[in-house]
Prior knowledge:
With 212 residues, this protein is an alpha/beta fold. Helices cover 58% and strands 11% of the residues.
Amino acid sequence: xxxxxxxxxxxxxxxxxxxxxxxxxxxxxxxxxxxxxxxxxxxxxxxxxxxxxxxxxxxxxxxxxxxxxxxxxxxxxxxxxxxxxxxxxxxxxxxxxxxxxxxxxxxxxxxxxxxxxxxxxxxxxxxxxxxxxxxxxxxxxxxxxxxxxxxxxxxxxxxxxxxxxxxxxxxxxxxxxxxxxxxxxxxxxxxxxxxxxxxxxxxxxxxxxxxx
Length: 212
């Protein structure tokens, strides 16, 4: 099974691409949702995060408030690194289980939708990586409009992420989201078609036809 990481910095359009592929029938694993589940039901992770970032990241029900955690963790690159160190191991274990299930089901491709493919070093365990990029100023406008984030918060989030330039060098496919929604769909469709061909080629190579 061809495993593909789909990533992109904040407000790049990654989620739109993932949904486009999901609607086309491609199996998409939401690694960010797995991360949320780890925060919600892994008591050891919760305790370690409180120890690292303080009790202020908890809501009135003593659960992790992802917004508050994000504000503290993404304030510095060291905070992001520490967050990754805590959440990454259990997240990766659950991700492996999800991929194994798809492989056993006979799927030829599986997409891992994850904002932190490179930060979590998931690219080392995946066959291909697809990066969605968008101009920095365009992403800022989206964050102001869609999330009502102040400029200082936006700058902190962007500063804590690896640059697109660094990620492009490590990616197999790059989808540039600098046009209309229809443009993005067309580029996403072209990439998933190329990945389908790769997956079919790998299956053919693994199961060559016997000579008569």
